[in-house]
UniProtKB/TrEMBL annotation:
Annotated EC: 2.7.13.3
Alphabetic keyword roster: Kinase, Membrane, Phosphoprotein, Transferase, Transmembrane, Transmembrane helix
Domain of life: Bacteria
Source organism per UniProt: Spirosoma endophyticum
Catalytic activity: ATP + protein L-histidine = ADP + protein N-phospho-L-histidine
InterPro entries per record: HATPase_C_sf, HATPase_dom, His_kinase_dom, HisK_dim/P_dom, HisK_dim/P_sf, TCS_sensor_his_kinase
Protein name: histidine kinase
Amino acid sequence: MKLLTKTNRIYLAFSLVIYLLTAVSFYQIIRMVIYDEVENRLRVEKRDFEEYVRMHNSWSTIPYFVENKIVVVPARGSKFQREVFTDTLIQNRYDNELAPFRQLTFYEPIQGVMHRVSIRKSLIQTYRLIEVITVVMIVFLGLLLLGSFWFQGKLSGRLWNPFYNTLARLKFFDLASDKPLELDKSEITEFTELNEVLQKMADKMRQDYSSLKEFTENASHEMQTPLALINAKVEQLIQTKQLTEVQMNWIDSIYQASRRIARLNQGLLLLAKIENRQFNDVQQINFTQLLIEKLQDMEEVLTHKHLTVSEQLTAPFDVLLPASLADSLVTNLVSNAIKHNQAGGQIKLTSTNNQLSLSNTGGLLTTDPERLFERFKKESTGPDSVGLGLAIVKQICDSYNIGVSYHYVDGMHTISLTAFH
């Protein structure tokens, strides 16, 4: 969820609560004011009634009080309240419907006899007035809420526009490109400071990337030369006839260690190049066909280990990859399937349009399967293994939006590649 959307929702929820509380409070205040006015009128009628009784010492049903209804009946008992206001419903004699009234009840002696007097005032007009005021208030508060919400959205959108511009430029910023990151200056101090920090970070990242790229390129050339020289000299020493058996063993150990260092150097440099996105020739690769050709190239090794290959091809597995990385990926997968297989074992290739799986027979893993794709995590302890093969596979897949997973079922180790289209 976007920050602006989240902010607007919080603002809307808070405004609704405030407006509801305001509406309820306003309704109660209006109702209290109107009721107070009605009660004041009833008290005036009470004083008029008392004045009439004092003057005439009697009460007549002559319509003296035309505004309100007055009911006078003899009272029973010895305890009489001064005055009480209550709400009551009285049936209308014209349409037989109950109508709301506000009633003032008090006691007044007439000709020496205590009477209970009830003066009633209709609340129909009062309720209509409250309803009208309430509807008008709700309409205006609703319009105010919608207007405030719309204005808040427009204002926030304009205020946050520099942030979204910065975010858009960061999304398209590429370290491999020669174009530096350029951010606009904003009128808002916080966004200006953010852009300055991001600009410094981007410049430092480009500088570090250039340095690292230059280092990997130099290391790729400079380190291979002495390693090749060491291997050549060791091969010459091995061919020398004056060496003893102990010296031959030493030289062979040096030769194997040198080859291991060379392979390790190549693997680490390849990982660095993949991470730095130094491969740009991305193209559509028929990975299924490439894997079949690699297995055919390894036919002598497969025959030597008595490995049988079976294929279940439903559809070709196509991915977008640089050709050199596709070859490296295939080589590592096939080498892993052969190296960790058993004599007389099997290799099975399964291909669909969105998934490719390469399975091989073998014993249970001694390492944690979840760490199988980490660098220098290897199952084999042989001198030919440097522990980078599956790490290279994982790095290539992660860099080019390909899913990779491992599972072991019924004696078959399977590495699956999944294309995310």
